[in-house]
Design goal:
By secondary structure, this protein is an alpha/beta fold. The protein has helices at 3-17, 19-49, 54-57, 60-65, 71-74, 82-91, 101-104, 114-119, 173-176, 185-196, 216-227, 241-244, 251-258, 277-288, 307-319, 343-356, and strands at residues 147-148, 154-158, 203-207, 234-238, 263-267, 292-299, 323-329, 364-369, 374-377, 383-387, 390-394, 400-404. It has one domain: TIM Barrel (Alpha-Beta Barrel), CATH 3.20.20. A nine-stranded mixed sheet has the order 1-2-3-4-5-6-7-8-9.
Length: 406
């Protein structure tokens, strides 16, 4: 065979290796077009129910004011069996739920709809004898104010318990409580004072709850206070609003953020169904303001613990100008055991991503050590063995090569 024939044979081999994913992608994108019709229908029902219009829908304050927090309202817009209704009633007494109209409208009639699994209480949450309320031991990493500190040069300020939608897998379920509330100003001031007195802190993550559920004024005050500390180099926000309530990403908010660069945003898309026209626009708007947006997906059994689902999610994130940053292995939080994947499944996904999609679409797979001992990156095994300077290495296709260092 000449070089051209070899090249064509190799190209055919590569095409064949991705045929299954391409068929999955075509079917998924077709399904998403159908989802859009369901979204518009549910949206129309919601607007009619609340006697509202498009301007209301696009106002994040209206969305928050009309969060659905009881099953009696919920059943007006999505189908729930009698068992599901009883589960929601019972479970929401101990771990409340709330869903803004926008995110509710994304739920489809599909049996195992990922949006529904992420947002509506289900019978799996009864397993409260498994896991811990605080598996990351945040209680013991709180040196001052509302800070969580696990690393030498960075820390978290928790500023609120409020979210547009309370994720059913949330690691801070214990803090949701029965009422919404922002962290008191005295605790915020104490947190800022601690950072001022700790010169090694160069990176501050503002989170909650959802950091973008603070008002624009509160966000700017926090940014001003942190930017007055010389050793704080970067500021990050943890928020799901680009995903769950994209209308929060207003011109005023982005103008505030870009005045205090370098500012980064970490968000959490867990399924490609969440990458709607509206959410992609919100993420692109942040990017247009010079804000690097990173995605921190959580690997969740039955939602996204599938190599094709995760590949399509990460590819579409890049289209939204969001960098796939982490895939977190789900934490063992009480009431979330039904979401727990296996590490073997996570490694299978990472192994598939390498070579089947671009490096930009490959996040780091992270296991959080229990007790707040920090992030541990998990990788498939590529070095099979080595002796002296010779290594046996597995390629992304599973081919074994030998490499000797000269």
């Amino acid at each position: 065979m000449n070089a051209k024939e070899i090249s064509l044979a190799r190209a055919k081999e590569l095409s064949n290796s991705i045929n299954d994913f391409m068929a999955f992608k075509e079917k998924a994108l077709h399904k998403m077009a159908g989802n859009r019709k369901e979204y518009k229908n549910t949206k129309a029902k919601l607007l009619d129910y609340y006697n509202a219009d498009e301007s209301n829908w696009n106002d994040w304050h209206w969305q928050m004011k009309h969060r659905i927090t009881d099953v009696e309202t919920l059943v007006n817009f999505i189908h729930l069996s009698q068992n599901e209704v009883q589960n929601v009633k019972k479970l929401s007494k101990t771990n409340r739920f709330a869903i803004v109209p926008y995110y509710l409208a994304l739920i489809t009639t599909e049996q195992n709809d990922p949006i529904k699994m992420l947002s509506v209480p289900s019978k799996g949450e009864y397993a409260v004898d498994l896991g811990k309320d605080d598996p990351m031991a945040e209680e013991f990493t709180n040196p001052a104010g509302s800070i969580t500190r696990r690393y030498p040069d960075r820390l978290i300020i928790n500023v609120t318990n409020i979210c547009a939608m309370y994720c059913r897998h949330c690691q801070r379920r214990r803090l949701i409580g029965e009422t919404d509330g922002h962290t008191s100003q005295s605790l915020i001031d104490e947190s800022i004072a601690y950072i001022k007195q700790t010169p090694e802190i160069r990176d501050v993550l503002i989170t909650g709850g959802d950091a973008f559920l603070l008002s624009d004024h509160q966000i700017e005050n926090l940014l001003k206070a942190l930017r007055q500390i010389d050793h704080v180099e970067i500021i990050r926000f943890g928020t799901r609003t680009p995903v769950t309530m994209p209308m929060r990403i207003t011109d005023n908010l982005t103008n505030i953020l870009k005045r205090y660069h370098p500012v980064f945003v970490n968000t959490q898309y867990n399924h490609y169904h969440e990458l709607t026209k509206e959410s992609m626009y919100a993420s692109q708007k942040l990017a247009d303001a010079g804000i690097v947006v990173g995605n921190q997906a959580v690997l969740l059994k039955g939602v996204n613990d599938d190599k094709y689902v995760m590949t399509l999610l990460n590819q579409r994130l890049l289209q939204a100008r969001v960098r796939p940053y982490y895939i977190f292995h789900a934490k063992e939080v009480k009431g979330t055991h039904h979401f727990m994947p296996t590490i073997a499944k996570g490694l299978e996904i990472m192994s598939y991503l390498r070579g089947h999609t671009s490096g930009l679409a490959i996040p780091t797979y992270i296991f959080n050590a229990p007790g707040g001992l920090g992030k541990i990156p998990l990788l498939p095994q590529y070095i099979i063995s080595h002796e002296d300077s010779t290594y046996r290495i597995k390629t992304w296709e599973g081919k074994i090569i030998e490499y000797t260092e000269k």
